[in-house]
Automatic annotation (TrEMBL):
NCBIfam families: CM_M_hiGC-arch (TIGR01808), PRK07857.1 (NF005894). Residues 20-101 form the Chorismate mutase domain. InterPro entries: Chorismate_II_sf (IPR036263), Chorismate_mutase_highGC-bac (IPR010958), CM_dom_sf (IPR036979), CM_II_prokaryot (IPR002701). It comes from Streptomyces rhizosphaericola. GO terms for molecular function: chorismate mutase activity. It is an enzyme of class 5 (isomerase). This is Chorismate mutase. Its EC number is 5.4.99.5. Keywords: Isomerase. Pfam families: CM_2. The keyword Isomerase applies. It comes from the Bacteria.
Length: 101
């Protein structure tokens, strides 16, 4: 018969903190980040749905699926707000929102 040993860890060890006080702060902040991530994912999904409506209307009216001048404006907006990483984030969002129609 084999036994499995589970090593119990303290909150400080789980977070990489050196004190329980710091671990508690980190734990609470991580919960907040998780909640923010859930909201961000929901907003991205909502953006994808709105983008699909726009693309459908554009295609139905005889236009192209993608409006490059609008994408350039989105890229500039994110870059201006968040710097160079904002451009990468905007590119990811645009990629997620393209071609759903």
């Amino acid at each position: 018969m084999s036994s499995t040993t589970t090593t119990a860890t303290t909150p400080a060890e789980q977070t990489g903190a050196h004190t329980d006080e710091a671990a508690a702060l980190i734990g609470g902040a991580r919960e907040r980040i998780d909640a923010l991530d859930d909201r961000i994912i929901g907003l991205v999904q909502e953006r994808m749905a709105v983008s699909a409506v726009i693309q459908e209307a554009r295609i139905t009216s005889g236009g192209r699926r993608v409006n490059l001048s609008r994408e350039t404006a989105v890229l500039s907006h994110y870059r201006d707000a968040l710097g160079k990483p904002g451009t990468a984030l905007a590119m990811t969002l645009l990629e997620l929102c393209r071609g759903r129609v």
